[in-house]
Amino acid sequence: MYTPKYVSRSEWLTVRGHAFHVRHWGREGAPKLWMLHGWMDASPTFQFVVDALERDWHIIAPDWRGFGLTAWNSGSYYFRVSGIHC
Question: What SUPFAM superfamilies would the database entry show (predicted)?
Answer without folding.
Answer: alpha/beta-Hydrolases
